[in-house]
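tool_log.txt
---
The assistant was asked to compare two proteins side by side. It first ran the structure predictor on the initial sequence, then on the second. Raw inputs and outputs are pasted verbatim so the downstream comparison step can read them without reformatting.
(1)
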Amino acid sequence: MENKASVFFSVRSIARIAVLGALAGALMYLEFVIPPFPTFYKLDFSDIPALLGTFAMGPAEGVLIEGVKILVKFLIKPTTTLGIGELANFTIGAALVIPAGLVYKFRKTRKGAVIGLCAGTITMTVVGALFNYFVLIPVYSAAFGMEAILGMASAIAGIKDIGTLVVYGTVPFNFIKGVIVSVITALLYKKVSPLLHR
């Protein structure tokens, strides 16, 4: 009987991960630029299903939802950034859901959710800065040219190299994105929680 329950839970979890991942993949197409940030930094709401799944099932499932999201995106539309944009989206999304899920796992209250979302937002901001500085922007500039990147970021005063792009572009953008996604998740979770646990 216990084995059957365990198998049922596994199948149910896989189904929820697949559905939430597909929804997140679709939400990747509802993206827009926030002036004056560079056009390659686009706000989308694809991390919301991952956060909802994280709170309902756990941080590992949240990361899997982030992975399914990227696979769905690749299946629907080929990459225009040689996979760099998708890698950034997955990494920064995972940096958001893991701390949020870990905090909520041990403190399943509204306050725990808020603390988790704050921790996730801070973590994704820090990870995003480091990942952009050491990996993404150097790879992107090797592929497309640093001049092209700085040209897209010229609307922000003070940007002249990778360091200033990260400080004035990456950090505030990821922080704003984290806050927006966290607020929407906090407003939605209690309403959809019964459906996610059904």
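(2)
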Amino acid sequence: MNPTEKNQPQEEEILKNQEVAEEAANTENAQEETPVAEEPTAEEKLNQQLEDAQKTIEEQQDKYLRLAAEFDNYRRRTMKEKAELIKNGGEKAITAILPVLDDLERAIKAPDTSDEVKAMREGVELIHSKFLKILTQEGLQKIETEGRDFDTDYHEAIAQIPAPAEDQKGKILDCVQTGYMLNDKVIRHAKVVVAQ
């Protein structure tokens, strides 16, 4: 065997090792050169969440301010409408009563041209019935008292007298002042005398 032949496999082995080492080095260099997508750090994630939360808060504040402004405008508008209704709410009733006022003015002037008491009385009775008709159309009702049982929801006792008969106890004997209801709500209780 030739000594050069012995060294040849060793040289080949050394060359192979050098090639492997160079490939490994090239691979490491290639990995260093290609930018690897880095995972965001915990701090970066936290900053991103904080920014998102800040945007959400700003959006919610904007929505809240707009809603508050809309509600304030609505409240002002309804208050204005209520004030207008209160101010002019009686307009319909007053307009309905104006013809009665005209009739009363004519009735006041009537004695100057006529001395007939009966005719004047009839005129006043017509005005009275016209006035009651208008009020009834507006929802006014008279509280009936004659022969009725005393009821504190509708009547106010101003006097109590002994009952003339046993079956009249707790009943109304006389109405001193008429009571009225407006749309089923008592606006003035009837003042009555009750049998005891």
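---
observation on (2): The chain has a mean pLDDT of 84. The chain has four helices and six strands.
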